[in-house]
UniProtKB/TrEMBL annotation:
This is Ribosomal protein L1. InterPro entries: Ribosomal_uL1-like, Ribosomal_uL1/biogenesis. It holds the Pfam family Ribosomal_L1. Residues 240-251 have a biased composition (Basic residues). Residues 202-251 are annotated as: Disordered. GO terms for molecular function: RNA binding. GO terms for cellular component: nucleolus.
Length: 251
């Protein structure tokens, strides 16, 4: 018997999220990297918004595997969940840090645009260490991600990382989907498809508009949806075609 969404206004089935997240985490475990890979929610709309669209989505758990603080004068009571880094790290952040959230002491000069050099795969956030609540503010900021649509119909939102517990990743994906569907123009009526993926993995389907079968993914940046089990890969299809041509040439 088909399950129903826990939220009456939602079209997302939690079971679909559990299956996709579990499969993605298994894939990431079989393809380890120096730092946990990010997990993205891919939102594909039927129609692009007429105007530029931005919205903050709050997640139950931080999608970053680490939080680092770049400062030359570290606070004496630096929390255990925040790693210290010298100001020189702004010039060349290590790979493990680029995938996490980097806090930058406001007393340091950060390049224009707020992005630290070498932090292309991470997010930087200026912090005021004179504020007693700076650490808690940083943790709260780490739970917020931005859904931005500037053109086209497909966008990726970071919702987790490969080292997360499955249930935490599921909670983040569900929260991100519900928040995204509630804020895009025309809401669920404008949601064409939803997928989860990591940078190198196949996109795994969570939802598709009835009638599309999850296979119509125009505008997904070439990431593609997961194929049904047993479907031949492009490489296998190519080998089959070459064998047929060879057989025809021998007759």
């Amino acid at each position: 018997m088909a399950s129903t969404p826990s939220n009456p206004t939602s079209r997302l089935r939690r079971e679909a999220v559990v299956r996709a997240v579990a499969a993605l985490l298994r894939w990431l475990q079989k393809h380890p990297t120096p730092a946990p890979e990010p997990i993205y929610l891919i939102v594909t709309l039927k129609r692009a918004p007429v105007r530029r669209f931005e919205h903050q989505l709050r997640l139950p758990h931080s999608p970053f595997p680490s939080i680092s603080l770049v400062s030359d004068r570290l606070p004496a009571d630096l929390p255990d969940d925040i790693d210290p880094l010298p100001s020189s790290a702004l010039r060349s952040l290590p790979a493990a840090t680029r995938r996490g959230l980097v806090l930058v002491d406001r007393r340091l000069r950060v390049p224009a645009g707020g992005k630290a050099a070498g932090a292309k795969r991470g997010v930087t956030l200026p912090v005021d260490l004179s504020d007693p609540a700076w650490a808690e503010s940083a943790r709260e900021a780490a739970r917020r991600v931005e859904l931005r649509v500037e053109g086209g119909t497909c966008r990726a939102v970071r919702v987790g990382h490969g080292a997360m517990a499955r249930e935490e990743a599921v909670e983040n994906v569900v929260a991100a989907v519900e928040a995204a569907a509630a804020c895009v123009p025309r809401k669920w009526r404008n949601v064409r498809a939803l997928h989860v993926k990591s940078p190198e993995s196949t996109a795994l389907p969570l939802y598709s508009t009835p009638g599309t079968g999850g296979e119509d993914n125009d505008g997904d940046g070439g990431m593609g949806a997961a194929k049904p089990e047993g479907t031949p890969t492009m490489e296998e299809q190519g080998r089959t075609k070459r064998r047929k041509k060879s057989s025809m040439g021998c007759n």
